[in-house]
Amino acid sequence: MGSNDILPLHVPSHVKPTCYVLLQFGGLLWTLCYALYVRESLKSKSYGMPLFALAQNFAWELVYAVYVAESPLEQSVFTLWLVFDLGMIYGVVKFGKYEWKQSPWIARNVGVVLIVMIGVATLGQWTFAKWWTENEVGRKEGKPYRGRIGPGTNELGVWTAAVAQVYLSAASLCQLVVRQHSGGVNWTFWACRMFGSISEL
After folding, report:
1. pLDDT confidence tier of residue 3, bands split at 50, 70 and 90
2. Do the domain assignments include residue 36?
3. Which of 41, 65, 151, 152 could bond to 78 as cystine, CB 3.0-4.6 Å?
């Protein structure tokens, strides 16, 4: 997803290492953000990431760890994030019923609802990634994929992650308004998420 790219000759030599450092810094902040999600969930007995955002997040990381990413580093990071996602899923299953008092059916079935959402989101992410890679969308010279010049998987990752990020941001604000409390999140978490996203862009 970009780590194998061969830059054109006219691009200054400092561009790739600079992008790599920014990407790693953003990934580190996102890893910290995930750890804070889990910690805050256990501490506040709530959950921080809205249900469908968590389903999308889990699906994205699963599809990119297993299907899209080629680099062992990328696969390892996405797998690590999946482990943190399991901690967030635990928080939803354990404490979600307390956050859905206005909807008793969801409160009783929050785990099942989340599993169905994860299934739908995974199918959607996989279908889109498969379509993108099989049709070689974003094909450019210098973009090897699976041993040959192929689709722009970096663009695929950016666009699909951007949609998930926008939804996560909007849903998190809505969740805060509906709940009238900030259980499951804190300011350090928000700062890590914001600066991690900026760094990765």
Report:
1. low
2. no
3. 65
Task: Please state, as a whole number, how many other Cβ atoms lie within 10 Å of the Cβ of residue 190.
Answer: 15
Would residue 170 count as lying in a domain?
yes
Which tokens belong to 160? 């699909």
pTM of the model: 0.88
Whether residue 198 is contained in a domain is answered as no
Task: Report the domain count for the chain.
Answer: 1
Q: Which long-range contacts (CB under 8 A, 24 or more apart) does 156-161 make?
A: 156/1, 156/68, 156/129, 156/132, 157/1, 157/2, 157/64, 157/68, 158/201, 160/60, 160/125, 160/128, 160/129, 161/60
Domain limits for position 90? 49-182
Count of C-beta atoms within a 10 Å radius of residue 84: 20
Closest of 56, 48, 57 to residue 78, by C-alpha: 57
Mean pLDDT of 47-70: 95
Nearest of 141, 127, 97, 124 to residue 9 by alpha carbon: 141
Quick one: average pLDDT of 167-187? 87
Cβ-proximal residues to 49 (8 Å cutoff; 6+ apart), any chain: 37, 57, 88, 168, 172, 184
